[in-house]
Amino acid sequence: ENIICDYISYYVKKTGIKKVALAGGVFANVKINQRISERCGVDEIFIYPFMGDGGLAFGCACMAYYENNKYSPKISRTETMYLGPEYTDKEILQELKSDDKITFKKSKNIAKDVADLIVNRKIIGWFQGRMEFGPRALGSRSVVAMPDDPTINDWLNKRMQRTEFMPFAPSVLEEHMDDVFIIKNKNFHRPAEYMTITYDVKKKWQKKIGAVNHIDNTARPQMVKKETNPLYYDMIKSVCEQTGIPMTINTSFNVHEEPIVMTPYDGLNALHRGMVDVLAIGSYLVEMK
User: Fold this and answer.
1) What is the pLDDT of residue 46?
2) pTM over 0.90
3) Using CA atoms in the order 182, 20, 174, 247, what is the torsion angle rounded to 10 degrees?
4) How do residues 231-256 score in pLDDT, each as one tens digit?
5) Distance in angstroms (rounded) separating the CA atoms of residues 18 and 24
6) Counting CB atoms within 10 angstroms of each CB, which of 27, 59, 147, 241 has the fewest?
7) d(CA 279, CA 141)
């Protein structure tokens, strides 16, 4: 942290540029990113959401485009990481009908029904829309649950065959970010859209959200905006209306050291393996018989 901050502080002073963009695998370290926002004299930071090799390849493609085309892209800033495959209810239903070990029903309001299940302490596999690009689950292929039980870090990690030592991350409604976290200013909100920074948790929330509050009283939130992921937003808002807690646990929908689920078959396989209690896939709620 000290070495990275020394580099950035030096060039901020040398150039006078206080808006800093970061890319590369080292910036998967969310605590370093928090330190940069606190110590380096920057006014704004942006961490490319896929900060590893795949994101750098995308950056190379962008650079080649700029160098070889006289017109700039219509979109000049990253607005979404929901760039992967998605599946229709028809495709999902076809997969569900081929599995004789499950029971399923179609929901008229999947966001509200899932919120009710979460409030009643169910662990949900949330499989909705286009898959995320990059290393973070951002509410398309996520496991979601209530964030107030600190013991969940032990038993859910075991259930998912993980040996993690840190608590889970939360997905938080955009309008509650400043209530829950200590954030320097609005310019430091944006990295949280992609879970690329930690913030200090305000004292009044530290025990209320024990499952996502780290031992140093920081958390790595995903800031959820209605315009970016309306279904996920509505689900979390329903949880908030019932509990007063404006967030859920959000951990990636995968067994340790296996890829995140992508297809309906993958989601069903996770259900079969006991990773989740209920699979919320498209408009369907799925359980084991």
Assistant:
1) 93
2) yes
3) -70
4) 999 999 999 999 999 999 999 999 87
5) 19
6) 241
7) 11
